[in-house]
Amino acid sequence: MEDPQLPLLEGCLKGNRKSFEDLVTFFQPKVFALALKFLWNPEDAEDGTQEILIKVISNLGSFRKESKLATWVFRIATNHLINTKKSSSEKRNVNFRKVEIELSKANVENTDSSEITKNLAIHVQAACTHAILLCLKRSYRIAFILGEVFHVSSSDGAWIMEISEANFRKKLSRARLQMDEFLGNHCGISSAKNPCRCKNRIAYSQKSKRINAYLELSENMKAKGTWKMKPLLSESNQVRKAAEVYHSGADFETRHDILKKIKQKIESNQWSLLN
C-alpha cells in the first residue's frame, strides 16, 4: 500500500535528525487530538502525547508495514491510552447522570453576540463535549473517537484496537448510541429543543475554571498565529448526530515544545538511531 510517511520512517532508521523532527512534527497534533478527547485534561493529554511519541520513535525499527505508518502510530497511542493509569479527570468518575446535573447549573440566557462571547462559547463546547466522552468506558470511548472523529474504517479500527472487526463495530455502535441519546436529549447544538447553550454557560464555566486550560491552549496558539476559531453550529430543528457535534469543535495544539522535550529525553538516553 502507498504510504506517504514511509520516507520519514526510512530517514529515521538511517539516523537522519531532520526526518526524526519531521515525523514528530507530523504526528504530534494527531496524537494530541486523540489524547485530549480521550483524557479531557490538556495537561494529561500533553504528557500522554510525549510518552506516546517516545514509544513511537523507540519502536520504529519494529514497524513491519502491515498497515500505514499513521495507523500503526494510532495503534501505539490507543494501547497506551487504554492501559495507562486513570487520568485526573477520570478519577472524578464522570457519568451521564453527573453531566446531566452539571448541565442544569447556571444555564442563564446570554444575549451577547460579540466575538469575545463566540470565542468563549467555543471553549465551553470543547470542555463540555470532551467531558461527556468520559462517560463512556475506555474501549467504547476510543472506538467512538477513532470511528466518528477520525473516520477510521472498521478494519483499521479493529487492527488498532487489536480486536475483531465485528467487535470494533459493536463497540462503536454502542458508544454512538449512548452519545446520540445523551446529546440528543440535553445538548442545544444537537437539538434546538434542548435548553442548554454553550454561551449561556460561559459565566459558570469561567467561575468554576472549567475552561481555563482550554483558554491557555488557544492563547498559546494565538501567540504562534495558528489559532483558527470555528463558528458554533447554528440551532437546528433536526437532531444532529453526536459525530457532527464533535466535528464542529475547535482544534487545539499543545502548549509545550514536545519535540524539544523528546529530543532531550532521547539524547539523554543515547538513543542509537540518532547517534
TrEMBL record:
Residue ranges annotated for the RNA polymerase sigma-70 region domain, each copy included: 25-86
SUPFAM superfamilies tied to this protein: Sigma2 domain of RNA polymerase sigma factors (SSF88946)
Keywords from the named record: Sigma factor, Transcription, Transcription regulation
Protein name (Swiss-Prot/TrEMBL): RNA polymerase sigma factor
Annotated source species: Leptospira ognonensis
Gene Ontology MF term list: sigma factor activity
Domain of life of the native organism: Bacteria
One of the protein's GO biological processes: DNA-templated transcription initiation
Leader sequence residues: none
